Amino acid sequence: MKKNVIWAIVFLLVFMWLVFKPESKDLPYFKHETDMLQVDITGAVKKPGTYQITRGMTLAYLIDLSGGLKEHADISNIQLGSIVTNTTYHIPHYQLIEEEIIKKINLNTATYSELMLVPYITENRALEILLYKKQHGNFESLEELLHVKGIGVQTFDKIKIYFFI
Question: What is the pLDDT of residue 156?
Fold first, then answer.
């Protein structure tokens, strides 16, 4: 009988614990965003790198943090007043197009030193041009260079833009 009383008390305690157990209080989940943002900036800025800025700052502020723009920065497609939302920004450079200036030389009055300034004219080719001119007289056309020893069609195509008659 004592045994049954102990079992009844244990059963009663377990039953009471299950009925009256405290419920766990789950706190609502809040996503906390930091007020700081890490942003990489590359390209035509003086000090490219990673900067930590406050959310809501403008691209102009980020560029100022990175030392400002370089001389050849192309900001034509960039809105400096826009709020920084991306984690990377690239400021492009202007694409400078350099044109080669070609100085043309009169083939009939050219000296050895002037011929040596022409690309694709070697020492031997310069001497051969002068020898050909001495033997045959002045050139009547640029195509006559094809008769000079050491100048073939490919070489002629490369050097003809540097001469005039």
Answer: 93
